[in-house]
What does this fold into?
Amino acid sequence: MRWVRKTRLLLRSLFRKSAVDAELNEELRFHVEREIARNEASGMSKEEARRAALAGFGGAEKFKEECRDARRVNLLQDLVQDLRYGLRVLRRSLGFTTVAMLTLALGIGANTAIFSVVSAALLRPLPYPEPNRLLAIAQTDRTTGTTGVPVSFTKFSAISEQSKTLESVATVYYDSPSLVSDREPEVLNAARVSSDFFRVLGVPIARGRSFLPEEEAPGGADAAVITDAFWYDHFAGDPQILGKALLLDGKSAIVVGILPASFRFPLQFPEPVVWLPRVFDPTFLRPEQVHSGAGYLNMIARLRPGETVSRTQAELATIDATYRELFGSYVDATRYALTATPLEESLVGPLRVQLLVLFAAVGFVLLIACTNVANLLLARATSRYHEIGIRKALGASRARLVRQLLSESLLLALGGGILGVGLAAPMLPALRTISPGTVPRLAEARVDMGVLLFSVALCGLTGVLFGLMPSLWITSNELLETLKEGSRGSSEGGGGRRFRSSLVVAEIGMALVLLTCAGLLIDSFARLIRVNPGFTSRNVMTFPMTLPPERYQQPRQWEAFYRQLLEAVRAIPQVHAAGVTSYLPLAAGGSFGFFCPEGAACRGLGRDPVAALRQVSPGYFETIQVSLLRGRFFTDDDTTENQLVAIVNETLAKRYWPGQNPIGKHVANSRDMIQREIVGVVGDTKFRGLGLASLEELYVPMTQIPARAMTMVVRSNAAALPLVAAVRARIAEADRDLPVAGIASMEEVISTSVAQPRMLMQFVGVFAGFALLLAAIGIYGVMAYTVTARRQEMGIRVALGAGHTEILRLILMQGMRMTLTGVVLGVAAALALTRLLAGLLFGVRAADPVIFAAAAIVLVAAAFVACYLPARRATRVDPIVALRYE
Amino acid sequence: MSKPTDLVQGTVDLLILKTIALEPMHGWAIAQRIRQVSKDVLQINQGALYPALHRLEQQGWIEAEWGESENSRRAKYYSLTKDGRKYLLREEANWDRLSAAIGLVLKKA
It folds into this structure.
């Protein structure tokens, strides 16, 4: 029953405050009366008795306050009072409040934005039931260590039949069929999936049904499941759509189901909108390739309840061994090992480090912002000495004063937080447009409840962080001592100055860490984009196209289409050169094949060397200006009637025929062993990434081995827009229903390939800029304050004959001492922290002395300017005026 | 601020609780009684007494009631609650143990 009594008392103390206070007064008055009576009884005079009794009471107000504290009335009531008072104080010093709030808004806003991205990518579970049971299954190349190699259909079937630890498995490959409707022809993001796909994810079909067994069997009718967004975009949410046909790649596919609006598929960017059955007859592979172990499938699986990834991994090793025995001649029999990773991890993978770097950088910005505000609060505290002193004398306890000052800080933090979240909300859409596809699930990033909670916690934390130290210090006895002497006009006590200086030192240290990181990333990025890609991107536009298989069944048709299109395009007056290639350098995608170079002992598919295979038209190399090292490029005469030819790149030539002339040697595809004569050696082009080593590349003429999906490259001196219009017109003339999506300049293609490192560099760079600015403001604040506080001293020095230079030096020395201490500490911290960046850097070491020096110089220069302004003011002190202040 | 240390605070609490264990008393009388019983050794000043009383009341160990004093004035009388009585027993036992232990150390060491 104790708590009932306690609560009743507390409520009474809170809500009947005047009654409780009156009782307290009466109680104390009674005590005094009794004391007087007792004193009189012991023989004192009336006056003496009274004085003695009151003397015992000392500061009555003070212990009345203590009695109220004992009743805990004050806690709540004070909070309201403190907040109201705090608001008044902050309103009164509008300048201070604005600067502090903006500083905090910057810190909290940036943190909120980055946190919402990190939370979407790393923290929020995948949008499927029991996401921790979902796995991605891919292969690792035993020779090169390349991970994420796609799985073949045969291997997928083997896993699906033999696995006991997996509840269900499914595969998907992505496709971009053209959609012909009454609108412009367009290219869709689509996916072909195996039968259990939606079951593995645990996603129900919202309307209609999933695929029927006959639709999943070979030769089945095409059916389509569409996303809710596609349904709204293309059919305005018409419920009659079920049963209607989409004309995909010239073939009709009946819409049978619509996915729930909440469905997301972050594994692919952009997310597929149309889902089709049957993964075993892709149009980009010949049946004999599919049935000899060609890998093209992304595999997902759901663990049985209670099973673990490691048990699946062990099981996969067994399945691999059996597969090797049964399908020894298949391309994927020996070279690749199956690996299972949690789906979540496979999605984020190496990006985790980048996101954590971003998060750490933005955290530093907030810390610096807090330090700055703490410094501002300290500076302001001096003007509040008297207020604090009087409050203390009137009986306010230290805890009470700290509470009051803290509530001011919390108000500031809250204001900054609201502003900051306001800043973050529009930052997210901007982030999505600037760097789409760089971070998985970026589209899902938003300021939601979790992010808001994070920001609120951040506000509380920052409020305490920047508010606690100053308020503890202000209310300490040391300050009261200062107050006593302080009336003589001397400056703030040594303790305070030291404290503020150490804050500035810390701030400079943190700024240096960020500047160094930014410097490293910028340098790394600059080196990356300066890498010679092996071709010229200037004035080249690229046009990806895929001929629909229904209308273009014969390879002869493909060859004819592209040959005629190229002729038409070359006829455009401003076009200098044009060509087509099956895979564009630095764009996604690629095809690899086993081949047999002349002179090597070949052991067949799956065991022979591997090269990147490209089908290119005559004119392709000339268009993007790949250098010809030996021999010749392809010509229109390289037809099937003539000698079968190939061109190899330098890397391949050096590897297999070191010191020999490759021209005239032969290579053969391991599958058919048809010999091709090498007619040319070209320079290497960067294919998978600017920062990655060149691959061995094998080019064959499109005129001998045509491809359905090609990218046309066009070099011209025309401006991009009219050229694109002209080329589009030629394509439409060739085939009115052929969509062309993803037209980009070659420069854009390169730029997209480095979007991720650029995003990281830009963000860390911006954060480092914030840090530099805040640190400069911080040091300026402290120096300006010092100059004001040391006015008299300066006056005396000037009066005694000190010149401008000496005064300037005096002040600058003080500032530079802080700066250099900060720089030294910062360098030490940066040496420890930049090592975490090592994996993200290209061509620059994490401890690069030049970058470290540059960061330090930038910081010292900024600090110098920040010190110089107040120092110059110190030299203008008029000794008479300064001394008169005394 | 001159907050009593824990030991002193605890001791004052104990003295107050023990003093009012016999009968309800007002603040002044509590101070007097402690002084008399301790033969003027323990003098609790008002600055320590009243905050302690209010704290003990808020903690639920004692309760207060306004009554008429010996000189016919309204006075606030404090008495132990049931919980307070248990608490006192516990604290007394603690104190005995503590003082016995200190005594032992002082004699033997």
About this structure: Residues 486-491 of chain A have pLDDT under 50 and may be disordered.
